[in-house]
């Protein structure tokens, strides 16, 4: 904004700031949109000082705040969204304090207002930033490296799913004409051979040539497979050069994908006070509902990152079903599966894996197959670190 602000509330607030600089504090709420962002500034009493809408660009927002409020901005608040990590990082580089709030919690607070507008949302976020941060969750914004790793994991996951969905579609098209493509193909080449055999058989018996329609889909499956393999090789190199991920992969059932997924989901272990908080953060702990005399424990909350939770459950399944090496962790999971069933046991083991991986990371230790060796090994690593 190049024009000088002449609103009475702004003029009065800046006059008070000039008279008493020590008490001059302003809180800013941003309601971020793809093209424009609503900005609301409130003072220490919660009164609106100025409201404006501008482009969703950190440089323009920072210039507006520095020009009109100098160094009196105490905190900038925004809710989570697609542009929030970028804007938060850029505003912090400009020297501002930024709090990124959980969008679901902010929505519940703002839903008490009758009219939902961008201006009202920005004012509500500014008020929450000023007085409500104690009861709302502030979101940790990860580094660019973590976002890059997450992007690779998401792209690989999407490519694998698209290949499987395309192969399932081909199976369905062939089945209409009485064909059946045998399952269990490990590569697109094997699936392609089986599919073409069925297409030739259908052409001979039914007189219908599906090859002009199906072969382009088979080529697409092969390209999905090649691109996913390229991303996996890059992730393998990254995990092999990362000391934390290398320790994760010492656990039976934990591979490159799960190790990098867990690392990029957490990034900083010091932001969790207790090891059990990690399982709750990833949505692997049961829901609890208590009211009066009733207390109900439900299924897992499924909050947090779904992709990392899926990877941990997959690793737990591999540990229970495919690994042959002994470990106290696997023995615990096998005993639990006999009592509560395999599906519940693998989720419980995934929760255990998250706690174990976090403990290895926090304590700089290695995985011990026997639980009796964990304590002495931890003491040894602490002694080496303090020496």
Automatic annotation (TrEMBL):
One of its GO terms (biological process) is DNA transposition. InterPro entries: Transp_IS110-like_N, Transpos_IS110, Transposase_20. Residues 245-321 form the Transposase IS116/IS110/IS902 C-terminal domain. It holds the Pfam family DEDD_Tnp_IS110. Residues 28-175 form the Transposase IS110-like N-terminal domain. It comes from the Bacteria. PANTHER family: PUTATIVE TRANSPOSASE FOR IS117-RELATED, TRANSPOSASE FOR INSERTION SEQUENCE ELEMENT IS1111A. This is IS110 family transposase.
């Amino acid at each position: 904004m190049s024009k000088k602000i002449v609103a009475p509330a702004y003029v009065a607030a800046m006059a008070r700031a000039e008279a008493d600089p020590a008490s001059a504090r302003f809180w800013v709420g941003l309601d971020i949109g793809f093209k424009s962002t609503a900005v609301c500034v409130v003072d220490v009493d919660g009164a609106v000082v100025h409201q404006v809408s501008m482009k969703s660009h950190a440089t323009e927002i920072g210039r507006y705040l520095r020009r009109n409020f100098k160094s009196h901005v105490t905190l900038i608040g925004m809710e989570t969204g697609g542009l929030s990590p970028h804007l938060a990082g850029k505003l912090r580089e400009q020297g501002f304090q930024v709090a990124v709030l959980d969008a679901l919690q902010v929505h519940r607070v703002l839903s008490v207002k009758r009219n939902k507008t961008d201006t009202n949302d920005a004012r509500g976020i500014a008020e929450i930033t000023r007085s409500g941060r104690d009861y709302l969750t502030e979101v940790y914004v990860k580094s660019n490296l973590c976002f890059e790793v997450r992007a690779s994991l998401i792209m690989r996951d999407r490519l694998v799913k698209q290949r499987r969905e395309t192969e399932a579609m081909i199976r369905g098209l062939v089945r209409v004409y009485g064909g059946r493509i045998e399952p269990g193909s490990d590569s697109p080449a094997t699936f392609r051979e089986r599919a073409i055999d069925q297409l030739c058989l259908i052409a001979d018996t039914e007189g219908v040539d599906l090859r002009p329609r199906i072969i382009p889909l088979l080529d697409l499956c092969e390209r999905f497979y090649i691109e996913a393999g390229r991303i996996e090789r890059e992730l393998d190199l990254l995990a092999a050069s990362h000391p934390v991920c290398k320790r994760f992969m010492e656990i039976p059932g934990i591979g490159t994908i799960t190790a990098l997924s867990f690392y990029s989901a957490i990034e900083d272990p010091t932001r969790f006070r207790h090891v059990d908080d990690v399982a709750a953060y990833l949505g692997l702990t049961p829901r609890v509902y208590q009211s009066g005399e009733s207390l109900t424990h439900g299924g897992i909350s499924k909050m947090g990152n779904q992709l990392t939770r899926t990877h941990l459950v997959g690793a737990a399944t591999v540990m229970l079903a495919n690994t042959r090496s002994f470990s106290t962790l696997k023995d615990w999971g096998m005993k639990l599966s006999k009592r509560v069933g395999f599906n519940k046991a693998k989720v419980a083991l995934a929760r255990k894996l998250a706690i174990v991986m976090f403990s290895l990371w926090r304590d700089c230790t290695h995985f011990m197959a026997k639980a009796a060796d964990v304590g002495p090994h931890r003491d040894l690593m602490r002694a080496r670190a303090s020496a």
